[in-house]
Amino acid sequence: MTETAKQHQIAELIRQAIVIPVLTIERLEDAVPLAKALVAGGVRTLEVTLRTAVAVDAAKAMIAEVPEAIVGIGTILNGDDLARAEALGARFGISPGATPELLKAAAASRLPFAPGIATASELMQALAHGFDVVKFFPAEQAGGIKALRALAGPFRNVRVCPTGGIGEANAATWLAEPNVLAVGGSWLCPAADIRAGNWAGITAMCARAMKSLKSG
Ligand code: 3PG
Q1: Cβ of 126 less than 6 Å from ligand 1
Q2: What are 45's strand-pairing partners?
Q3: Whose CA is nearest to atom 4 of ligand 1?
Q4: What fold does the segment set 3-210 form as a domain?
Q5: Which residue lies with its CA nearest to atom 3 of ligand 1?
Q6: Helix (H), strand (E) at residue 116
Q7: Which of 33, 71, 122, 198 is 20 to 30 Å from the Cα of 103, by its Cα?
Q8: Does 135 participate in catalysis according to the annotation?
Protein backbone atom coordinates (compact mmCIF):
# COMPACT_ATOMS: atom_id res chain seq x y z
CA MET A 1 0.00 0.00 0.00
CA THR A 2 1.35 3.43 -0.83
CA GLU A 3 1.76 6.01 1.90
CA THR A 4 -1.05 8.11 0.45
CA ALA A 5 -3.45 5.15 0.32
CA LYS A 6 -2.61 4.28 3.92
CA GLN A 7 -3.20 7.88 5.03
CA HIS A 8 -6.48 7.98 3.14
CA GLN A 9 -7.54 4.77 4.85
CA ILE A 10 -6.84 6.00 8.38
CA ALA A 11 -8.48 9.35 7.64
CA GLU A 12 -11.67 7.70 6.38
CA LEU A 13 -11.73 5.20 9.20
CA ILE A 14 -11.49 7.98 11.80
CA ARG A 15 -13.91 10.28 9.97
CA GLN A 16 -16.58 7.60 9.76
CA ALA A 17 -16.17 6.76 13.44
CA ILE A 18 -17.22 10.26 14.64
CA VAL A 19 -16.37 9.05 18.16
CA ILE A 20 -13.64 6.59 19.14
CA PRO A 21 -13.89 5.24 22.68
CA VAL A 22 -10.53 4.71 24.36
CA LEU A 23 -10.91 1.37 26.14
CA THR A 24 -8.91 0.18 29.12
CA ILE A 25 -9.93 -3.41 29.81
CA GLU A 26 -8.90 -4.92 33.13
CA ARG A 27 -10.78 -8.26 32.92
CA LEU A 28 -10.80 -10.36 29.79
CA GLU A 29 -14.41 -11.43 30.35
CA ASP A 30 -15.52 -7.80 29.96
CA ALA A 31 -14.12 -7.45 26.44
CA VAL A 32 -16.90 -8.99 24.36
CA PRO A 33 -19.90 -7.64 26.33
CA LEU A 34 -18.28 -4.19 26.29
CA ALA A 35 -17.73 -4.28 22.54
CA LYS A 36 -21.30 -5.49 22.02
CA ALA A 37 -22.63 -2.70 24.25
CA LEU A 38 -20.73 -0.04 22.32
CA VAL A 39 -21.78 -1.42 18.93
CA ALA A 40 -25.42 -1.61 20.09
CA GLY A 41 -25.20 2.10 20.86
CA GLY A 42 -23.90 2.85 17.35
CA VAL A 43 -20.22 3.17 18.32
CA ARG A 44 -18.33 0.70 16.14
CA THR A 45 -14.76 1.95 15.96
CA LEU A 46 -12.98 0.94 19.15
CA GLU A 47 -9.49 1.70 20.44
CA VAL A 48 -8.27 -1.01 22.82
CA THR A 49 -5.34 0.43 24.73
CA LEU A 50 -2.27 -1.65 25.51
CA ARG A 51 -2.44 -0.54 29.12
CA THR A 52 -3.38 -3.81 30.80
CA ALA A 53 -2.12 -7.38 30.80
CA VAL A 54 -5.24 -8.65 29.03
CA ALA A 55 -5.36 -5.97 26.30
CA VAL A 56 -4.09 -8.17 23.45
CA ASP A 57 -6.42 -11.06 24.29
CA ALA A 58 -9.30 -8.62 24.80
CA ALA A 59 -8.79 -7.18 21.32
CA LYS A 60 -8.54 -10.67 19.82
CA ALA A 61 -11.80 -11.71 21.51
CA MET A 62 -13.58 -8.61 20.22
CA ILE A 63 -12.35 -9.22 16.68
CA ALA A 64 -13.42 -12.87 16.80
CA GLU A 65 -16.79 -12.41 18.45
CA VAL A 66 -18.01 -8.93 17.50
CA PRO A 67 -17.52 -8.68 13.74
CA GLU A 68 -19.43 -5.38 13.51
CA ALA A 69 -16.73 -3.71 15.61
CA ILE A 70 -13.74 -2.06 13.93
CA VAL A 71 -11.06 -2.84 16.47
CA GLY A 72 -7.84 -0.85 16.65
CA ILE A 73 -5.04 -0.74 19.15
CA GLY A 74 -4.07 2.31 21.17
CA THR A 75 -1.21 3.24 23.48
CA ILE A 76 1.27 1.95 20.90
CA LEU A 77 4.57 3.16 22.35
CA ASN A 78 7.19 1.46 20.16
CA GLY A 79 7.82 -0.84 17.23
CA ASP A 80 7.12 -3.98 19.28
CA ASP A 81 3.67 -2.71 20.25
CA LEU A 82 3.01 -1.88 16.62
CA ALA A 83 4.00 -5.41 15.56
CA ARG A 84 1.70 -6.88 18.23
CA ALA A 85 -1.17 -4.78 16.97
CA GLU A 86 -0.59 -5.87 13.40
CA ALA A 87 -0.20 -9.53 14.34
CA LEU A 88 -3.46 -9.70 16.27
CA GLY A 89 -5.42 -8.34 13.32
CA ALA A 90 -6.06 -4.77 14.45
CA ARG A 91 -7.60 -2.52 11.78
CA PHE A 92 -5.65 0.54 12.90
CA GLY A 93 -3.12 1.75 15.44
CA ILE A 94 -2.94 4.91 17.53
CA SER A 95 -0.15 6.29 19.70
CA PRO A 96 -0.13 9.03 22.31
CA GLY A 97 3.22 10.20 20.93
CA ALA A 98 5.62 10.20 18.00
CA THR A 99 9.17 8.97 18.64
CA PRO A 100 11.48 8.66 15.62
CA GLU A 101 11.74 4.88 16.25
CA LEU A 102 7.97 4.42 16.28
CA LEU A 103 7.39 6.68 13.27
CA LYS A 104 9.96 4.74 11.26
CA ALA A 105 8.38 1.40 12.19
CA ALA A 106 4.88 2.72 11.44
CA ALA A 107 5.97 4.09 8.05
CA ALA A 108 7.33 0.64 7.15
CA SER A 109 4.20 -1.17 8.40
CA ARG A 110 0.96 -1.77 6.51
CA LEU A 111 -1.16 -0.90 9.53
CA PRO A 112 -3.10 2.37 9.16
CA PHE A 113 -1.62 4.43 11.97
CA ALA A 114 -2.07 7.80 13.67
CA PRO A 115 0.79 9.08 15.84
CA GLY A 116 0.17 11.44 18.72
CA ILE A 117 1.28 15.05 18.75
CA ALA A 118 0.91 18.01 21.09
CA THR A 119 3.45 20.45 19.63
CA ALA A 120 4.55 21.85 16.26
CA SER A 121 7.87 19.98 16.42
CA GLU A 122 6.18 16.63 17.09
CA LEU A 123 3.82 17.29 14.22
CA MET A 124 6.74 18.14 11.94
CA GLN A 125 8.37 14.81 12.84
CA ALA A 126 5.13 12.99 12.06
CA LEU A 127 4.81 14.80 8.72
CA ALA A 128 8.43 14.02 7.86
CA HIS A 129 7.53 10.32 8.10
CA GLY A 130 4.40 10.74 5.98
CA PHE A 131 1.74 11.01 8.71
CA ASP A 132 -0.72 13.86 8.25
CA VAL A 133 -3.54 12.30 10.29
CA VAL A 134 -2.65 12.52 13.96
CA LYS A 135 -4.03 12.18 17.43
CA PHE A 136 -3.92 15.54 19.23
CA PHE A 137 -3.12 14.47 22.78
CA PRO A 138 -3.75 15.49 25.50
CA ALA A 139 -6.14 17.81 23.70
CA GLU A 140 -7.71 19.87 26.48
CA GLN A 141 -4.63 19.87 28.68
CA ALA A 142 -2.31 20.87 25.80
CA GLY A 143 -4.22 24.07 25.03
CA GLY A 144 -7.59 22.89 23.78
CA ILE A 145 -9.25 24.24 20.66
CA LYS A 146 -7.18 27.43 20.74
CA ALA A 147 -3.98 25.37 20.46
CA LEU A 148 -5.47 23.27 17.66
CA ARG A 149 -6.46 26.40 15.71
CA ALA A 150 -2.98 27.83 16.13
CA LEU A 151 -1.43 24.62 14.78
CA ALA A 152 -3.84 24.69 11.82
CA GLY A 153 -2.17 27.93 10.67
CA PRO A 154 1.17 26.49 9.54
CA PHE A 155 -0.14 22.94 9.10
CA ARG A 156 -3.16 23.38 6.87
CA ASN A 157 -3.57 19.87 5.58
CA VAL A 158 -3.23 18.09 8.87
CA ARG A 159 -6.32 16.33 10.21
CA VAL A 160 -6.67 15.32 13.81
CA CYS A 161 -8.47 13.12 16.28
CA PRO A 162 -8.27 14.96 19.61
CA THR A 163 -8.36 12.98 22.84
CA GLY A 164 -7.74 13.86 26.46
CA GLY A 165 -10.36 15.73 28.45
CA ILE A 166 -13.13 15.27 25.87
CA GLY A 167 -16.61 14.28 27.04
CA GLU A 168 -20.30 14.76 26.47
CA ALA A 169 -20.09 18.50 27.24
CA ASN A 170 -17.41 19.46 24.70
CA ALA A 171 -17.34 16.70 22.02
CA ALA A 172 -19.59 18.63 19.61
CA THR A 173 -17.48 21.78 19.89
CA TRP A 174 -14.34 19.85 18.97
CA LEU A 175 -16.09 18.09 16.08
CA ALA A 176 -17.14 21.42 14.62
CA GLU A 177 -13.48 22.31 13.96
CA PRO A 178 -12.72 21.85 10.25
CA ASN A 179 -9.55 19.81 10.82
CA VAL A 180 -11.15 17.43 13.37
CA LEU A 181 -12.15 14.08 11.86
CA ALA A 182 -13.48 12.48 15.05
CA VAL A 183 -13.08 12.79 18.79
CA GLY A 184 -11.76 10.14 21.15
CA GLY A 185 -11.90 9.51 24.84
CA SER A 186 -12.78 7.28 27.72
CA TRP A 187 -16.03 8.95 28.70
CA LEU A 188 -18.26 6.47 26.86
CA CYS A 189 -16.86 3.53 28.81
CA PRO A 190 -16.40 4.61 32.44
CA ALA A 191 -14.35 2.16 34.52
CA ALA A 192 -17.13 1.93 37.11
CA ASP A 193 -19.69 0.89 34.47
CA ILE A 194 -17.33 -1.73 33.07
CA ARG A 195 -16.64 -3.08 36.58
CA ALA A 196 -20.35 -3.23 37.34
CA GLY A 197 -21.22 -4.78 33.97
CA ASN A 198 -23.55 -1.87 33.23
CA TRP A 199 -23.70 -2.71 29.54
CA ALA A 200 -27.19 -1.24 29.07
CA GLY A 201 -25.98 2.05 30.57
CA ILE A 202 -23.00 2.15 28.18
CA THR A 203 -25.27 1.40 25.20
CA ALA A 204 -27.66 4.18 26.22
CA MET A 205 -24.85 6.70 26.67
CA CYS A 206 -23.38 5.80 23.26
CA ALA A 207 -26.75 6.05 21.53
CA ARG A 208 -27.33 9.48 23.08
CA ALA A 209 -23.86 10.69 22.09
CA MET A 210 -24.11 9.41 18.52
CA LYS A 211 -27.55 10.96 18.06
CA SER A 212 -26.44 14.39 19.20
CA LEU A 213 -23.07 14.34 17.41
CA LYS A 214 -24.47 13.07 14.10
CA SER A 215 -27.09 15.80 14.06
CA GLY A 216 -24.53 18.48 15.01
C1 3PG B 1 -6.21 8.65 25.53
O2 3PG B 1 -5.31 7.85 25.56
O3 3PG B 1 -6.67 9.06 24.47
C4 3PG B 1 -6.71 9.24 26.80
O5 3PG B 1 -6.40 8.44 27.89
C6 3PG B 1 -8.14 9.56 26.76
O7 3PG B 1 -8.30 10.64 27.57
P8 3PG B 1 -9.58 10.80 28.48
O9 3PG B 1 -9.52 9.68 29.51
O10 3PG B 1 -9.44 12.15 29.12
O11 3PG B 1 -10.78 10.68 27.61
Answers
A1: no
A2: 70
A3: 164
A4: TIM Barrel (3.20.20)
A5: 163
A6: strand 116-117
A7: 71
A8: yes
Q: In this structure, are residues 133 and 160 in contact, taking their beta carbons and an 8 Å threshold?
A: yes
Q: If you count them, how many residues does the chain have? A: 216
pLDDT in tens, the chain (216 residues): 666 888 999 999 999 999 999 999 999 999 999 999 999 999 999 999 999 999 999 999 999 999 999 999 999 999 999 999 999 999 999 999 999 999 999 999 999 999 999 999 999 999 999 999 999 999 999 999 999 999 999 999 999 999 999 999 999 999 999 999 999 999 999 999 999 999 999 999 999 999 999 876
Closest CA to 115 of 62, 79, 148, 144: 79
37 φ/ψ angles, rounded to the nearest 5 degrees: -65, -40
Expressed in angstroms and rounded, the spacing between residue 193 Cα and the centre of ligand 1 is 16
60 is catalytic: no
Q: Please report, for the chain, the start and end positions of each structural domain, with discontinuous segments joined by +.
A: 3-210
Annotated catalytic residue, options 60, 122, 135, 140: 135
Q: Is the CA virtual torsion 200, 30, 36, 165 positive or negative? A: positive
3-state secondary structure of 70: strand
- What spacing in Å lies between the alpha carbon of 49 and ligand 1's midpoint? 10
